[in-house]
Design brief:
The complex is a heterodimer. By secondary structure, chain A is mainly α. Chain A has helices spanning 6-18, 21-51, 59-90, 93-97, 104-132, 141-165, 172-186, 199-207, 209-222, 228-258. Classes of the chains: A mainly alpha, B alpha/beta. The complex binds adenosine-5'-triphosphate and magnesium ion (MG).
Chain lengths: 259, 305
């Protein structure tokens, strides 16, 4: 009778994701393909022609860690926002789950776990495309993929908490897209080093898991500004974000499912 | 099985359940009857260990649901007032997935799902998405889902609200069968006929308090007369006539649309009324019901009219 676990929730989420497999694969592979073909090759050829790449490497190599982490982050956040809204607001599925042997924290963990699967899939798929474009070396997989996954998980736990706070979905996704995802993508040193931005907007990058993961990825893959203390600071930021996010998510799930 | 004393639930300043006491024995079918907002669902959610109580004591199967939630819930089946089936999954998937939440094995669940689909008469809808089911079918599936862990206690919050009479009778039949198998039932409803059909014993709730407790028959004989004479004189005249009928029967309720006379012999009372020269537009003699008990206890109708 016992033995209820977060795994059963993850199993359910994966079952549900499977129904969307085409869309997930399309975004997982098609997105990066288009992106790299347009920005990577187009902008890249300009940058490379002008100054021989950026940061001492070809533009695509500079871009790769950021694009990879960004994809992992977006894939992960899809799986913690829509399902959580369905769980608390649309279909109220979590209230059904809360009437079983599951605890609210297990429900949260299960959703997160399934998003981790999506994050890993996305990171792997994206890396393959990057490799196909010659943006990364085979050896870089060992460092770039874990960095992207790490950032994806850190952000997913944070969004798990935020999504669990939403009472009605009026414009929630539009707000997240406009004020979180897009600025994060644009101000995280994705397309050029963050240091080229004035300090007034640089802080956005400091708060962004994408920037931290990108810096880690660049340091590890081609040794950009490789300073050990800084590297660990980036890692610490992501770990703290993930840890705090999970704790807050547990608290919020418990509050809402026992009120 | 269930023992509540001084059970209380507050939402901020508002008290939804105001210190109620009751107990439910094994195999019993227990009802919570009351109008909208009485606190029935809130009480159910406390019993189902999905909301923490604000005061008093509650024991389910000798455990405190607030501190032993998962353990308690493992033995309960819950059919909530608002359905929360996964509309994107099929009937069979809904049952299977829900069983997994209880930690049940695939091997146990495979035959169980078929058994429950048969119970809910949904075998031919096995692989149909819940989206495509009628309201009655969804309700039956929700009840079947509540049985996936073979619960000792089944909690049903307004199981037949919104169903047509035929669907209600099918459901009642299913619930009788469960009761015969020894499952303890706790049912909330604001239908008096449902309460009379399903419940061995019930409490009548209003505004978070218990107004009365007993079997449907005892409540009726305790709080009402044997028969009720309903008289209609047209909306304008009811109140005026009411004043002239004093002395006939034990009690009278003057509702806007009709007068209710509580009497032992309806026909005799009607003769007496006509004898005083008040010929009603329409009259009806019927047995007393829980509706009359409720009217007596609260001065209000059970179902909002
Ligand atoms: N989560 C909540 N927050 C605030 N108030 C609540 C909450 N849930 C219920 N209430 C209030 O508590 C009271 C009792 O509600 P409850 O749902 O228990 O009534 P009920 O007897 O089930 O009514 P109905 O027949 O309409 O289902 C109502 O006044 C309701 O507004
Ligand atoms: Mg209710």
């Amino acid at each position: 009778m016992s033995g209820a676990s977060a795994l059963s929730v993850a199993e359910y989420r994966l079952r549900n994701m499977w129904k969307w497999k085409r869309a997930i694969i399309f975004y997982g592979l098609g997105g990066p393909f288009l992106y790299l073909a347009s920005i990577g090759l187009g902008v890249g050829s300009l940058v490379n022609a002008n100054g021989g790449g950026l940061d001492g490497v070809p533009y695509l190599t500079f871009l790769a860690p950021a694009l990879l982490a960004s994809a992992a982050i977006q894939g992960g956040q899809d799986e913690v926002t829509f399902p959580v809204l369905a769980g608390f607001v649309w279909q109220k599925l979590f209230f059904g789950m809360a009437a079983t042997s599951l605890t609210p924290a297990q429900i949260a963990n299960g959703v997160l776990l399934a998003s981790v699967v999506r994050i890993i899939f996305t990171a792997l798929a994206y890396w393959v495309v990057l490799w196909g474009f010659g943006a990364v070396t085979l050896a870089s997989a060992v460092v770039l993929i874990p960095c992207a996954i790490f950032a994806g998980i850190a952000f997913a736990t944070f969004m798990l908490w935020i999504a669990a706070k939403v009472r009605n979905d009026d414009g929630f996704f539009a707000l997240v897209g406009r004020f979180v995802i897009t600025p994060m993508f644009l101000f995280s040193g994705t397309f050029y080093p963050l240091q080229s931005l004035p300090l007034t907007v640089q802080w956005i990058g400091w708060l962004s898991p994408l920037w931290h993961a990108t810096e880690m990825g660049r340091a590890l893959s081609y040794g950009a500004g490789a300073q050990a203390p800084l590297f660990w600071l980036h890692a610490l930021f992501l770990a703290l974000m993930g840890g705090a996010g999970l704790l807050l998510a547990h608290r919020q799930f418990t509050r809402r499912l026992t009120a | 099985m269930i023992r509540a004393s001084g059970l209380t639930k507050r939402y901020g300043e508002f008290t939804a359940v105001a210190g109620i006491d009751f107990a439910v024995a094994r195999g019993e079918s227990f009802g919570l009857l009351g109008p909208n907002g009485a606190g029935k669902s809130t009480t159910m959610r406390m019993i189902s260990a999905t909301t923490l109580r604000s005061g008093g004591d509650l024991r389910i199967l000798d455990r405190d649901p607030d501190t032993h939630g998962p353990e308690v819930r493992a033995h309960l089946g819950v059919v909530p007032q608002e359905g929360n089936l996964d509309t994107e999954l099929t009937c069979a998937e809904n049952l299977y997935v829900y069983g997994r939440y209880f930690g049940l094995s695939r091997r146990f669940l495979r035959p169980k799902v078929d058994e429950l689909l048969a119970f809910a008469q949904l075998e031919d809808k096995r692989d149909v998405k819940v989206d495509a089911l009628s309201g009655g079918m969804k309700r039956r599936l929700t009840i079947a889902r509540g049985l996936v862990n073979e619960p000792e206690i089944l909690l049903l919050d307004e199981p037949t609200t919104g169903l047509d009479p035929q669907a209600r009778h099918i459901l009642w039949d299913r619930l009788f069968r469960l009761k015969e198998q020894g499952v303890t039932l706790v049912v909330t409803t604001h239908y008096m006929d449902e309460a009379e059909q399903l419940c061995d014993r019930l409490i009548v709730m209003d505004r978070g308090r218990i107004m009365a407790e007993g079997s449907p028959q005892t409540l009726i004989s305790e709080y009402s007369s044997r028969e009720v004479l309903e008289l209609r004189y047209g909306t304008g005249r009811n109140a005026e006539v009411a004043a002239q009928l004093e002395g006939i029967g034990q009690r009278m309720e003057a509702l806007p649309d009709r007068l209710l006379l509580y009497v032992d012999d309806g026909e005799a009372a009607l003769e007496a009324v006509v004898g005083r020269g008040f010929h009603p537009i329409a009259s009806l003699v019927r047995r007393s019901s829980l509706e009359d008990v409720f009217l007596r206890l609260t001065g209000r109708s059970l179902v909002d009219e």
